Structure formats: C-alpha cells, structure tokens
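Notebook entry, cofactor series.
This is the third protein in the set we're modelling with a bound small molecule. For this one the ligand is zinc ion. I'm keeping the input format identical across the series so the outputs can be compared line by line later. Sequence and SMILES below, as received.
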Amino acid sequence: MDRKAFKLPFRRQALTKYPCPTCSKGLLKVKKDSFHFKETRSSERAHPHEAWDPDWIEYVYGCLFECTNSECKDVISSSGVGFVSEYGSYDEEGNPDIDWDDYFVPRYFNPHLKLFSLPKETPESVSEEIEKSFALFFCDPSSSANHTRIALENLLTHLKIKRYITSGGRRSYLALHKRIELLPRKYEHVKDILFAIKWLGNAGSHSQREVSPDDVLDAYELMEELLAEVLTNKRKKVKFLAKKINKKKGPK
Ligand SMILES: [Zn+2]
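Returned structure with ligand:
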C-alpha cells in the first residue's frame, strides 16, 4: 500500500498516484476539460483584509478522472476542496524564485478507490465493511475506522467465535476484546494485530480523539496483514506497528 498516494494533494495537470479502482493497474488523471473549480464565497470575501495572503484561498472542485491503462480507461467522478500553496521554482535568469500553484484534496470518489486489495478468500461480510470503510476514507476517517472494526467483528464470526453469552436466561453481546481472547491457539500469533485494529476502531466510534487518515491507513496495513495470515496463510510482519498501538491503547 502506497500510503503517500492517498495523503498528498494533487495538481490538476499532473498524473495522480491514485490507483484505478476498476483495473488496479492504471493511475488516475484528470480527464481533459472536465475539471471545474471555484473559490468559495467566504474565501473571496477575505481578499480585502490587510493581512490577506494567497494561502488564505479556499476552492471547491468537481471533475472526472480517467484511468491511464489503455485497456481500461474507466472514468471516476470526484469532488473536494482546494488551496493555494507556494513551491520553489527558477526565474528566467535561473535564480531561485517562489511560485504559487493550486492544490486539491479529494473528499469523494465514485466509484470509491480501493486502498488495499483483499484476498479472494475474504468472506463477503468482511469485504462489504472494508468497502464501506474505503468509501468514507477521504470524507470521514472516524466512520471509516469504525467500519474496519465491524469488519473485524464479522471476521471473528466467520472464524466461529461466539457473539453472545447467555446468563440467567438473558442474551448479551460479547465485547470485541473478549471475543479476540476467545480465539483458539492457532491464531495466537495474530492476536496483537486484532487488538491493534480494535483500538483504532474504538477511537473511530468513541471519538475522544479525532481519527486521522494516517490512523485509518494503520488499520488498513494491519487488516491487510491479518487477512493474509488468517485466510491465506502468508506470513509477513507488522508486529512493530501493532505493538506501538497496543502500548498506547489507541492511535499512535
Ligand atoms: Zn483502470
């Protein structure tokens, strides 16, 4: 997973690093003549202010992206916000100069991007929640993290870990933490990963702290590893990341 690709703003003339959600091979580029953007009203109104600077500017945009893979060329719609920022350049004499350019940050993609690929063995109850998480990644990281937590609950159900306990004739839900502890011995080596995803997902649902896109990307890296371990028997290590999150009992 190329974390940077999903965090950096894009410039409308440049090729983005967003992978095409249809073919996963091409990258997305703004389709010619489809990019529309405008400065917001409150941004325009701020111009007369004596301290005004171009980096106060705020835009909204809408556009179509096209896949660069000539065999795919699928189109994806997107909208979001934008800003102006300086970058280093050179003037005609070759002296260092400062220039301004417009940068854009997506809030929505339709169809949504796929931030990591799921093994083909992934049960539908899990993949559905991961897809919901992908759809919310750019506009609502907290809800996005929360869906990874639900995916985790559904994975445990798929692994036949019980969801309820019955005592005194009353049935009640088992806490996720408890369910992870109930995993049989053969999953001992992935428990840390499950706990780490749980902490990140908890932050998403209880919101004592704002969940950042980086926190969700952490959850995706852990989930990618977990699904490969549990569903496909591939072995890789993200134990370091899991350890850090578990130590903090929340996003690092
Ligand atoms: Zn494509």
